[in-house]
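REVIEWER CHECKLIST
Item 1: Sequence provided? yes
Item 2: Single chain? yes
Item 3: Sequence as submitted:
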Amino acid sequence: MQLHLLSHAEQVAEHLKQEIALGRWKEEMPGVAQLKTEFGINQVTINVALQLLEQEGVLIAQGPKRRRLIAPRRGLIDPQALRVRILLYDQQSRQLQHQNVLLDELHQAGFSAGFARKSLHDLGMNPHRVARFVRRSTPGAWIVASGSREILEWFSLQSFPSIALFGRFSGLPIAASSPRAGNTLIQVVRKLVAMGHHRIVMLSREERRQPTPALFEQIFLDELKAQGLAAGSYNLPDWEDTPKGFIACVDELFRHTPPSALIFGEPRLMATAQLHLARRGILSPEHVSMVCSNITTGMDWYQPAVTHIRWDHRPVVKRVVNWAKNVAQGKSDKRQILFEAELVEGGTMGPAPKSS
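Item 4: Structure as written out by the authors:
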């Protein structure tokens, strides 16, 4: 089979065609000067690329010094032509089951999909750095995992399609797929209070605490108040977002008025705290109850079994894949679909210690 290498102009034409297919430009193309400035490509190459698109029937020429019209959509986008990139929360997320299932199902649906080279944490959770990275990447559709409010707001304003997989998307014009864990969290707080717990602390990452608590964290604080308990910085403490900073926060919590129950926003935080506290002779549930918002592969072997909020990853993944299919069909899909979660009671939650 003879290999055909695309010329520079052909590569530019493919790039422009994909942007058109994704709806970046609607009725007419920008002028050559604007495209030259935006993409940093010389005028001759852009003119050749536009002529190639005319020959394909993607663009319609209107004569000298007049912008080319975009031909009416002639069918579906080939999934292989739609590059789907998963922008992970951090590199460790590559090991999570739902991320790998998502990537596999995107491939099975025919999409050219993969994890982005950098994660949100690699980019410092900085919206400006994320924007630069995305703009320099191959154009296509983006799946943003556990994005902060500012980052998801930036994605929601872009011309290319994107979907939030978890994260702080509420109220933003962006598609989303996520478990609905708020009602289950209320159930957790009420069970803990019924067991005599009055000092309940949630440990979450910075982007879920700042500048204001995310929905899950706010539900936690509101339910504490509804139960007649104090709800403030003690219950949702700030900490430096490093392993050392997290351990320092845990040590500080147990220095004077130790909590009787800890709720963790992610499995890694619980595993780290549980190991560190065990070295200090502080065990769960004898001295402190522990509840995790989810568990990962391997934690199902923990003894005692971890009390956690469980959600089925299958409908969450299916929603993202269906969103990609809608995008490939030229449909606008900004629905935010949430799926119910449930409480799985294990051996890490028990009555408050008598000393409490």
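Item 5: Key structural point noted by reviewer: The chain is about 40% helix and 15% strand.
Item 6: Recommendation: ____
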